[in-house]
Amino acid sequence: MASDQSLSRAGLLYGLGAYLIWGFLPLYFKLLTQVPPSEIVGHRIIWSVVFLAILATLWRRWPAIRAAVTTSRVLMTLTVTAFLIGVNWLVYIWAVINGHVLAGSLGYYLNPLVNVLLGVALLKERLTKGQIAAVMLAAGGVAVLASGAGNDLWISLTLAFSFGFYGFLRKVAPVDSLEGLSIETVILAPLALGWVIYLGRSGDGGFGQFGPGIDTLLILGGAVTAIPLLLFTAAAKRLPYSTLGFLQYIAPSLQFLLAVLAFGETLTRTHLVCFGAIWSALAIFTFEGLRQGRAASRARAEAECCTP
């Protein structure tokens, strides 16, 4: 049996792999600027179905997929999450291709704080004073951005809330990552296939129009979609939640750097105030999480010590 240290080391590698892929994903989508964003999403869905079907066959997961499909509550939940992830993908790809990577990175910085709000509103979780201060600080940063440079704010908020609700519903749905993503992409596949065929027949599609390189990138969208999500799931099973919490800031940080340094997007004073508030809020929230984790560990140790 693997030791806790080896499991933690493997989990760290899986987590780094997932967030590094997500962080550098804008570079991949920037190579597809000739293709309409809606078509990129369509191919991403179609080829994800193919890629996940291969994995389900190799890993013998078809019985679990069939069990999930025949459970009405699970199927209804995955229909909603399919819509949410479809919206998330479409808005994110549109943002990258149209030069709004900075707004996209802000959306994913906001996502952990959105998760906190959802936990309070829907799960009746209670916040510490520090966490309340962090949420208010983040809200203040967003308000500054809305008042000074709010044209892109819809991108950030759509990404944060669509992925926040997606994560919440997937958390409460009794289905694993591979099975859930497989069913979600199958639900979206008819619409995606129909749209890709329509674009191709109308002459507005990119597949087959810009050479084998672009076609290959569109086909690889399935693997690019599934691999980081599967790595993330593997990491989540092996790492403490606090460690995973630190790792989740890698992707938006890389996207932020790409937006400013590689893509030449303008970083205004309003952006700096907003990002400064968000980063400060995340630092407070992370500190509070670590403090609570240490307190819980001490409480468990004391309980074990006193147990006869």
Question: Quick gist of this model?
Answer:
By secondary structure, the chain is mostly helical.
**Element pattern in H and E:** HHHHHHHHHHHHH
Coarse shape: globular
How much of the sequence is in beta strands? under 5%
Oligomeric state: single chain
Q: What gyration radius follows from the Cα positions, in whole Å?
A: 21 Å
Averaged pLDDT: 84
Helix content: over 70%
Structural class call reads mainly alpha
Cα distance spanning the termini:
29 Å
What number of domains? 1
Unreliably modeled segments: none
Count of helical stretches: 13
Number of strands: 0
Largest sheet: none
What would you say this structure looks like, in words?
The protein is mostly helical and 308 residues long. It has one domain (4-306). The protein contains 13 helices and no strands. It has helices spanning 4-30, 37-58, 62-69, 72-97, 101-123, 129-149, 153-172, 177-202, 212-219, 221-238, 241-247, 250-262, 269-306. Helix 2 (37-58) packs across helix 8, helix 4 (72-97) packs across helix 8 (177-202) and helix 5 (101-123) packs across helix 7.
Output the keywords.
globular; mainly alpha; 308 residues
List the helices and strands and how they pair.
Blueprint: H1 4-30, H2 37-58, H3 62-69, H4 72-97, H5 101-123, H6 129-149, H7 153-172, H8 177-202, H9 212-219, H10 221-238, H11 241-247, H12 250-262, H13 269-306
